[in-house]
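quick one
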Amino acid sequence: MDKGFGDTFERFSKATGIKWLIITVTGWFGVNCGCEYRRKLFNKWFPYKQNKKMNKKITLDDILDPITPKIFFTEYWNKKHLIIRRNKFKNLFTWGDFNHYMNQYPAMKGLQILDYRKDGDGRWCLDKVRNGKWKLPMLKKDQIYKLWEEGKSFILPFAEYQNKELVDICSEFERYFEQGQSNIYCSPKANSKSFPAHSDNTENFLFHTEGKVKWTIYKEFAPSKPKEILEEFILEAGDLLYIPQYQYHKVDTIGPRILISVHFRNKDKQSLDNFNITQLGNNKRSKWYNWLPEKPFNKKGEKVEERRMQSNSWKKRYFREKI
Ligand SMILES: [Fe+2]
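structure w/ fe (ii) ion:
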């Protein structure tokens, strides 16, 4: 990829033969054509914008933006919830992704439907409960779809490898916390059943990617019981919410929504006085591999894009005889 105008000029002059002319003419007069110098100078004067998304590691600063990690850990971590209203990471999991994911049913692991089972917490995990006292038949795809149409909330567990950005976010968090997990909460309409007020034994980061969600945060932390409401608010796509471990909270669905919960346990003996940050790339999470095949090479050994056959040109190749 060209870094600037200098690279483009170099390529263009090579391709059109101007370069040969420049070298020949300057050669006749015994002067250096200055190609390399010119290329670098033009690149410096007219640089192209680099695609920042490429190869750029997601940092905790990016994730918590506009709050800095220092403010986060000193003022909020383990103490109080944090609402970050902004317009970021909306594409981590969209309705299109949900559609693709659900169409794979039943070839998926641990799909959960809220309010399916009348006992317990109302959650039914479709492929864990195959025997024992909770045993229920596996549902057919059209039955699952009907439950969605009726307004049931679905939870997609182990979702962190749904895309690279989400893996990068988890990996970055795991420098500060233990290895975590991601669940995606999806609801089709307002008043879809969600969990009652509860607390979790993990640090929770909630990325909102579709629709709006009403949150209720309670003053109490477990093992106390939730009594007093601390704050109620509505978050939407692009917003981030942090809820400390053990703090009580509740979600109400006020329309179709997708919410990604990324949660982690704290590292053993982690404290502000003795804060342990794992070095980049030193965590236990398996990395995101690029499974794409290598691109073909040209004579110079450079990687080239394969040209696709255009229009009817393919016919010439395969049908030399007149058809
Ligand atoms: Fe929760």
